[in-house]
Specification:
By secondary structure, the chain is of the alpha/beta class. Helices cover 32% and strands 17% of the residues. Bound molecules: ligand NA7.
Length: 545
């Protein structure tokens, strides 16, 4: 941290009463938005609930927290100097390395002086007469801004575990998404982990090494692919750095924001032997998409997907010695339709004597007691419960702020039956509101860095367009919004995604409308569409003087 920035951070709790833009969140999207607005000579203030920059990487400090996209790709592309100077150490860095990168960016671009930390935004109301947003924080700050940018992230509101008796437990309780900064010593303790998504899969092997005894409570088994994490070799870093412009172009034009060769054949048009060999090669490479990119139809054909599913099941049975435990760890939904996990030694952890798997499909949790977890068949005595129960994803952070647009209409209310947002970035009735990686954009079905940079650039482009043309507001029409929402649904309906209950569909949160929220056509196609709309003067939006 530079001296000036440190001073700015500690000294400044002053909040301007009027700025051009309020940005909510100082994760990677909020930091870049601030930088872009400054380049346009606009004033902005960022409110951040956490004590520092980093967003999801500030909060998710549990042991084993790692990014699932390779570091040289999961990084900003907006500054060639930043790209060249930053030295990534690992293929899939752990949380401390990513947070270090976020801090480096904040220092390098002097961002902290316009960020107010430990400040949660509670409400934002659009004043139609003044054509401005009035934004309120938990500390009573009120700021008027022409633009409101929600850089609040897709997995930032931890889901409370809706289990009877949660408050009753007398031991220690931790949530992976709010892990103590000073770390947690579990040596010699009986630990229970509830949840086996990416967070559970990341934390379980490390807790198993420390705790006396670990009980994993699994409701839905996850597909986890080997990360094959390792230190980056100097020559591969140099290779990417020498060609970063071409690499970034490939990222932007790709499907997931990760440059890899596209598959050309169906899983059903090759022999079982050839298919097995291809899956084996993908498994050896590891990573999030190598297996899913083996054939063209793994996301669209159940029969094709079943071949990959059977392959992963065989792998699990090879890795886990106890056949009943292995069977319990085999998911029953199509591979890839919930975000797959990346792991280091997850399945092998179940071969340890001190690790026990409880299949909640067979013996559901009845309640949390003062001394542990009671399932339908017995009580599991515990000293510590770790909730790895996930997030109210994609819309949770947007609806947790009381956002009111024209006529006092609440965003939360208007999304009661499901989110509606044109291009996943703007909503009818909410002028000059930009939702970075909002519902209906590729967001979590992509390398988030690619998607958030694209959204920030597009929002900055739209704001620049207003500025240059003496206009004050941009707002989608209801017609364009409805057509986009239908299009998002239609694209999803061609895939296997909507069939599976997951946080992509909101099915993990009781009472949340079940809608497949991300746009599944890929970041390359999506970007073309957004660019085309901007180039044609923003059809589908109303721009007013
Ligand atoms: P996930 O992927 O939503 O995983 C949460 C896990 O917790 C999942 O196994 C859930 O089972 C389980 N869960 C949630 N509530 C309960 C209750 N009440 N009882 C038992 N089990 C429960 O969240 P993560 O934090 O792991 O990962 C989220 C994303 O963040 C990840 O994909 C990365 O992209 C970053 P369920 O599946 O609902 O049956």
């Amino acid at each position: 941290m530079s001296i000036s920035d440190r001073d700015a951070r500690t000294a400044s709790r002053t909040v301007p009463s009027r700025v051009d833009a309020v940005i909510v969140g100082a994760g990677f999207s909020g930091m870049y938005m601030l930088h872009r607005l400054r380049e346009m000579n606009l004033s902005a203030i960022v409110f951040e609930a956490g004590g520092d920059v980093g967003g999801t990487w500030y909060w998710n400090r549990y042991p084993g927290a790692r990014v699932d996209v390779e570091s040289l790709a999961y990084s900003y592309s907006f500054s060639a100097e930043l790209e060249q100077e930053y030295e990534w150490l690992e293929r899939y860095p752990a949380q401390p390395e990513i947070l270090r990168y976020a801090r480096h960016v904040a220092d390098r671009f002097g961002l902290r002086r316009d960020i107010r930390f430990d400040t949660r935004v509670t409400a934002a109301a659009y004043d139609e007469g003044g054509r401005a947003w009035r934004v309120r924080t938990e500390h009573g700050d009120v700021v008027t801004a022409r633009f409101l940018v929600m850089s609040t992230g897709c997995v930032s509101v931890p889901k409370s575990p809706e289990i009877p008796g949660v408050g009753r437990f007398g031991g220690r309780v931790h949530h992976t998404a709010n892990w103590p900064h000073e770390g947690v010593d579990l040596t010699g303790l009986r630990v229970g982990v509830i949840g086996t998504g990416s967070s559970g899969v990341g934390v379980i092997p490390l807790i198993a090494e420390q705790a006396a005894d670990l009980t994993v409570f699994q409701r839905t088994a996850a597909y986890s692919f080997p990360a094959r994490n390792r230190g980056l070799r100097p020559e591969e870093i140099a290779g990417v750095k020498a060609n970063y412009r071409a690499f970034r172009k490939e990222q932007r034009e790709s499907h997931f924001g990760i440059p890899v060769p596209m598959p050309t054949r169906s899983a059903l048009e090759v022999s079982p032997e050839e298919r097995e060999a291809a899956y084996e090669r993908a498994w050896e490479i590891g990573g999030l998409i190598s297996l899913m990119y083996t054939y063209t139809d793994l996301y669209t054909s159940r029969e094709a997907n079943d071949t990959a599913k059977r392959f992963v099941h065989r792998k699990i049975h090879q890795m886990v010695r106890d056949p009943r435990t292995a069977a319990d760890l085999c998911p029953d939904y199509p591979v890839g339709t919930k975000r797959p996990c990346l792991d280091t030694g997850y399945y092998e952890t179940y071969n340890r004597e001190n690790v026990h798997l409880v299949n909640l499909r067979r013996t559901p949790i009845a309640e949390i007691t003062e001394t542990g977890v009671r399932t339908s068949d017995r009580e599991h005595a515990l000293d510590v419960i770790v909730y790895a129960t996930g997030f109210d994803a994609i819309t949770g952070a947007l609806t947790s702020v009381d956002i009111r647009g024209r006529g006092g209409v609440s965003l939360r209310e208007s999304w009661r039956t499901g989110p509606r947002a044109y291009l996943g970035i703007a909503a009818a009735g909410f002028p000059n509101l930009f939702m970075i990686t909002g519902p209906g954009s590729p967001s979590v079905l992509s390398n988030m860095m690619v998607s958030l940079e694209q959204h920030v650039d597009w929002a900055a482009g739209a704001i620049g367009h207003l500025e240059r043309n003496g206009l004050t507001t941009i707002e989608p029409t209801r017609q364009a919004q409805d057509a986009w929402t239908d299009h998002v649904d239609l694209v999803a309906a061609h895939t296997l995604f909507p069939e599976t209950d997951s946080w992509y569909t909101g099915a993990n949160v009781p009472g949340k409308p079940r809608v497949f929220m991300p746009y599944a056509a890929g970041v390359g196609q999506y970007r073309k569409r957004c660019d085309d709309i901007a180039a044609r003067g923003y059809p589908g939006f109303t721009l007013s003087a």
